Amino acid sequence: MLQPVIIAGGSGTRLWPLSRELYPKQFLALTESDKSMLELTVERLAALNCAPPIVVCNEDHRFIVAEQLRLSGSSNNGIVLEP
């Protein structure tokens, strides 16, 4: 079975002033939807026959990732934290 890995790291410097170090672009709703880029990615995976994703993110963003996964109703196979 396919194991998706979502890379959700980053420092939020390239889309300033919308994104910030503590709230980078992957957690922002940038389209006409009210969902973040992370939520939209998880939503796309639901259409595939694959395992729940593993999300890799910065240690400072672990609670944002967990909350957005909870809001999307998605299960996951863990959150891997980078320093």
Provide an overview of this structure.
The chain is an alpha/beta fold. It contains two helices and three strands. It has helices at 37-45, 62-72; strands at 5-7, 54-58, 79-82. A three-stranded parallel sheet has the order 1-2-3, with helices on one face. Strand 2, helix 2 and strand 3 form a beta-alpha-beta unit. Helix 1 packs across helix 2 (62-72). The chain is globular.
Layout: helices, strands, pairs:
Layout: E1 5-7, H1 37-45, E2 54-58, H2 62-72, E3 79-82
Parallel strand pairs: 1-2, 2-3
Q: How many helical stretches?
A: 2
Radius of gyration: 12 Å
User: For the report, how would you describe the main beta sheet?
Assistant: 3 strands, parallel
Shape estimate: globular
Secondary-structure element order, as H and E? EHEHE
Overall average pLDDT: 88
Q: What is the terminal-to-terminal distance?
A: 29 Å
Share in helix: 10-25%
Class based on secondary structure composition and strand pairing: alpha/beta
Q: Largest sheet, order of strands side by side?
A: 1-2-3
pLDDT < 50 stretches:
none
* Count of DSSP strands: 3
How much strand?
5-15%
Task: Identify the notable features of this structure and list them briefly.
single chain; 3-stranded parallel β-sheet; 83 residues; alpha/beta
Give the structure's gist in a few sentences.
The protein is of the alpha/beta class.
